[in-house]
Hints:
Elements lengths: L2 H12 L12 E3 L2 H11 L5 E3 L14 H9 L2 E4 L9 H4 L7 E4 L12 E4 L2 E3 L7 H18 L4 H27 L7 E6 L3 H7 L2 E6 L9 H14 L3 E3 L7 H14 L4 E3 L20 H16 L1
Parallel strand pairs: 1-2, 1-3, 3-4, 7-8, 9-10
Antiparallel strand pairs: 5-6
Helix pairs in contact: 2-5, 2-6, 5-6, 6-10, 8-9
Amino acid sequence: xxxxxxxxxxxxxxxxxxxxxxxxxxxxxxxxxxxxxxxxxxxxxxxxxxxxxxxxxxxxxxxxxxxxxxxxxxxxxxxxxxxxxxxxxxxxxxxxxxxxxxxxxxxxxxxxxxxxxxxxxxxxxxxxxxxxxxxxxxxxxxxxxxxxxxxxxxxxxxxxxxxxxxxxxxxxxxxxxxxxxxxxxxxxxxxxxxxxxxxxxxxxxxxxxxxxxxxxxxxxxxxxxxxxxxxxxxxxxxxxxxxxxxxxxxxxxxxxxxxxxxxxxxxxxxxxxxxxxxxxxxxxxxxxxxxxxxxxxxxxxxxxx
Length: 305
């Protein structure tokens, strides 16, 4: 174990039972996607708090003492479980003071459902929420965990989960229809990092990212050159930034394309940036999981037509 992880673990355990000044949450979810599902299912009966807010990159997230206090005082911790929160794995895997610590991906079949990838010490790509069908399995797990931890609300939670899962089924159908409105040779998605592999497999897109599956791995000059060649070869009209990833690398790719092919490629950014590892601010199109998915497919189809 690295020195920074040893120090981190010591700090975490030193805070057990000492979160008196920290806001109390019944459930702490690491990411916005998980928190959104827990909030929909719980219907306000319990307090759900998200550890990583809008625009936060979970691959690089460094928790504060306040964050650790929230974790130690919660009855239930919900996290991805595929090393998405790479710097927090040691703390998240250890339940404390009788609390439950649960991975929302536990019901997924590692051979059938998951993409192989070397990510921050893990073996699989953690970005499963980009395939809505896979995410529904995770939502079912979230529902089960909430019912186990708060049995007094189980009947209502099950009812809310059933309604939410029906919405997700319709969402998946909507995304498939919009994706298929693009000709197959137009379905090429180039983004800041390789987060959209499940999206590509589910909805028929060829996907390339400048950085790897984890943003903790920096892109190289060779990565920029290879991606620029791919964009020229495939005649890609636009490439996409992400709200939780910096864009200088993609700007280098655009410069390389212009130098080689003497043509401009649109950089989709600002309010049209894709939501990848985090939801959007309150009031934005990506403030909820369903809103995030709709925003992404609408922006992608419009830009690639």
